[in-house]
């Protein structure tokens, strides 16, 4: 193959390849983003519906008795009461 033919083919390849990349990018911007946005919004709506229907079951931890080997659980219960329930009183374990 002559040098001029090689240069012509390589330039044609570069031109076609770069135009394909631009077209693919435009297609994604035109079609891809709205599709992805639709699915994300759909999932967020489903998550919102699930979270709105979760019932807060505030079971007092004092009713649940721990054994002598459950020291870590007792400490976690104290932390839960102190942090989440703003209860600084002691938890009976």
How would you sum up this structure, described in words?
- The protein has helices spanning 3-52, 71-83.
- The protein is an all-alpha fold and 93 residues long.
- The chain has two domains: 1-54; 57-93, no CATH class.
- The chain is elongated, with a radius of gyration of 31 Å.
- The termini are far apart.
Summarize it.
By secondary structure, this protein is an all-alpha fold. The chain is 68% helix and 0% strand. The chain has helices spanning 3-52, 71-83.
The computed structural class is: mainly alpha
Mean pLDDT across all residues, rounded? 76
Helix share of residues? 55-70%
| Domain unit count | 2
The largest β sheet comes out as:
none
Outline the low-pLDDT stretches: none
Straight-line N-to-C gap: 88 Å
| Number of distinct helices | 2
The percentage of residues in β strands lies in under 5%
Tell me the radius of gyration: 31 Å
Number of strands: 0
Order of helices and strands: HH
Shape by Cα distribution? elongated
Write the SSE topology.
Elements: H1 3-52, H2 71-83
Keywords:
2 helices; 68% helix; 2 domains; mainly alpha; 93 residues
């Amino acid at each position: 193959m002559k040098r001029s033919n090689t240069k012509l083919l390589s330039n044609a390849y570069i031109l076609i390849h770069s135009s394909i990349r631009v077209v693919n990018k435009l297609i994604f911007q035109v079609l891809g983003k709205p599709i992805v946005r639709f699915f994300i919004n759909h999932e967020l709506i489903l998550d919102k519906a699930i979270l709105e229907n979760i019932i807060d079951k505030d079971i007092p931890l004092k009713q649940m008795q721990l054994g002598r080997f459950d020291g870590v659980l007792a400490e976690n219960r104290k932390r839960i009461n102190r942090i989440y329930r703003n209860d600084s009183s002691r938890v009976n374990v």
